[in-house]
């Protein structure tokens, strides 16, 4: 039997405030996942409290994918955020520890970004 999960659509502007609220309520960060959906990048931030998952879902236009960092609230998020930048070309603003595009070394820049992103990608660190 699987537990029900809640998905809450959110804008990037509302992300940090909502994450602060969840932290104050005792939620723990479980994961931040990303996927490419056509010309959209979808981010899912999953939080757990007492065995119940709450997911914050952001859909970003791939051509201008920007999101604020939540590492000021959950410090460990810097790992997910660097990964999302390096693999999906999502610009994360204000990461506690920013690897400047060098968290992963890949033969293809931003390998899971959209086709348009990958074709336009510079060789290093953006």
What does it look like?
The protein has 126 residues and is of the alpha/beta class. The protein has a single domain (5-112), classed as NADH:ubiquinone oxidoreductase Nqo5 subunit (Beta Polymerase, domain 2), CATH 3.30.460. The protein is 25% helix and 33% strand. It is built from three helices and six strands, in the order βαββββαβα. It has helices spanning 12-24, 77-88, 115-120, and strands at residues 5-9, 28-37, 40-49, 52-61, 66-68, 91-93. Strands 1-4-3-2 form a four-stranded mixed beta sheet, with helices on one face. The chain has a two-stranded parallel ribbon with strand order 5-6. A hairpin with a 2-residue loop joins strand 3 (40-49) and strand 4 (52-61). The longest helix is centred in the N-terminal third of the chain and has 13 residues, at 12-24. The protein is globular, with a radius of gyration of 15 Å. It starts with a strand and ends in a 6-residue tail after the last helix.
Task: Name a few traits of the molecule.
single chain; 126 residues; alpha/beta; Beta Polymerase, domain 2; 4-stranded mixed sheet; two-stranded parallel sheet; 25% helix; 33% strand
């Amino acid at each position: 039997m699987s537990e029900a999960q809640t998905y809450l659509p959110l804008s990037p502007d509302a992300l940090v405030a909502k994450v602060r609220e969840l932290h104050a309520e005792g939620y723990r960060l479980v994961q931040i996942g990303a996927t490419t959906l056509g010309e959209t990048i979808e981010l899912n931030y999953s939080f757990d409290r007492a065995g119940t998952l709450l997911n914050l879902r952001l859909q970003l236009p791939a051509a201008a994918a920007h999101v604020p960092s939540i590492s000021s609230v959950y410090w460990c998020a810097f790992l997910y955020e660097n990964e999302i930048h390096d693999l999906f070309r999502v610009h994360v603003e204000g990461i506690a520890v920013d690897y400047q595009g060098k968290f992963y070394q890949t033969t293809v820049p931003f390998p899971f970004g959209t086709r348009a992103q990958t074709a336009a990608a510079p060789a290093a660190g953006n």
